[in-house]
Amino acid sequence: MPRTNMNRARLERLFVAVLVAGALMVWRTEHVQAQRGPRGGGRGAAQNERQFGRGRNLRGVLGGVPLTAADSAVQNVVARLDFDSYKELVRGLTQFGDREQGTERNAQAIDWIEQQLRSWGYETGRIQYEYRGEPREEVYATKVGSTVPGEMYIIGGHMDGRGAGEAANDDGSGAALVLEIARALASSEVTTARSIRFALWNNEETGLNGSRAYVDQRAPLQGIEEPAGSGIYPEPRWLGMIQHDMMMWDHGNPVTYSQALDADVDVEFQLNSAMAEESAALGLRLINANRKFATDYPGVLSNAMSNTDSSPFMDLVPSVSLRENRRLYETGNRANPHWHQPTDLFVTFSDDDFRLGFNAAQTTLGALAHLVEARVAPGM
Ligand SMILES: [Zn+2]
Question: Ligand 1 mean position to 62 CA, how many Å?
């Protein structure tokens, strides 16, 4: 065969190969779009449940891990979380609009949060502090440890927002996550060896003023039994802090369809902190808990935690934050178009979005239940 003919044959084969590859790419794009629906819509939870069943990994991204007996005990605790309850708590917070600090709707939201916690049987407390010379408040509650009440983990979300919408995602989604975990643990059927504090920070948006006030006021009180011999510890010794801020939206950047295929729960610690190594270890516990107990979305660990209420804790105790996106690399590059906008509304988000927040709740509670030795009483 003459050399020129051979080259032509090769070119023709290459051309066909390119055509086939192109056709496959077009088919795949359309196939994926058909599966996921139009922008902002996506597969509903009901559709997913019909096809895959509840509690299954819908995306096939999490590898199976054989559960130990200890893991199974944790799973019984995580199973108390309820997706619809989580959504309703987000909805409850959004009835107060953006809950901007210093407004009446902010004060009403604090009262509402306190009512929820009390309705589940918790005693609540409030931190009083000043912001620019004016009085401010924030509310917390505690699951008291049965055998080591003088030690605790703190989990937090901020209840204030901004943007003139409903601050549904920032940070209704994180505040509701903390409340849903509190609800799941409230029953006397659930015991924890160590204590857990549920913190609903105020004044996050003005510069972490609420969480800073907490650290300033309460750090010196850690581990003091009051009154002596009572077994009561107003401020148990801090073992770690886990913050939740913007939990639901991971649609890629630029934004594509309802949840990117690689949507995940981002766990961050701060490398430039006194407790970096211990915080990384806490973060790894969360990643491992995610693999075992989260149903839909994987977890990823990185080291640039920033602009969130775990920052005031990070030189004192192991501290991490959970988010829909890495704060500096992704959120900071406008990965969420609703951030601080009037469109941060309950109705903006689909069940795929709420489910990402719910997976973060499964992640945190999975790690936490192991750390505080949470148990559901047998037969419950
Ligand atoms: Zn926030």
Answer: 28
**DSSP E strand stretches across the chain:** 124-131, 134-143, 148-158, 190-191, 194-201, 237-244, 265-268, 299-302, 319-323, 375-376
DSSP state of 238: E
> Distance, CA 168 to ligand 1 centroid (Å)?
10
Q: Cα-flanking dihedrals φ and ψ of residue 208, to 5°?
A: 60, 30
Beta-carbon count within 10 A of 73 CB? 16
Ordered domains of the chain (ranges, CATH): 43-376 (3.40.630.10)
Q: For residue 203, how far is its CA from the centre of ligand 1 (angstroms)? A: 10
Ligand 1 centroid from CA 109, angstroms: 16
Q: What is the pLDDT of residue 261?
A: 83
* Tens of pLDDT, residues 283-310: 999 999 999 999 999 999 999 999 999 9
Q: Ligand 1 centre and the CA of 379: distance in Å?
A: 39
> Is the separation of the CB atoms in 263 and 300 below 8 Å?
no
CA of residue 204 to ligand 1 center, whole Å: 7
Residue 345 has pLDDT above 70, yes or no: yes
- Mean pLDDT confidence for 233-254: 96
How many angstroms does the Cα of residue 126 sit away from the middle of ligand 1?
A: 20
Alpha-carbon gap, residue 155 to 129, rounded angstroms: 20
Separation of 169 CA from ligand 1 center, angstroms?
A: 8
Q: Residue 364 Cα, ligand 1 centroid: separation in angstroms?
A: 18
Burial profile 154-177: b = 16 or more Cβ within 10 angstroms, e = fewer? bbbbbbbbbbebbbbbbbbbbbbb
Quote the tokens at residue 299: 């977890």
Q: Is the Cβ–Cβ distance between 153 and 371 less than 8 Å?
A: yes
Q: How far is the CA of 199 from the centre of ligand 1 (A)?
A: 14
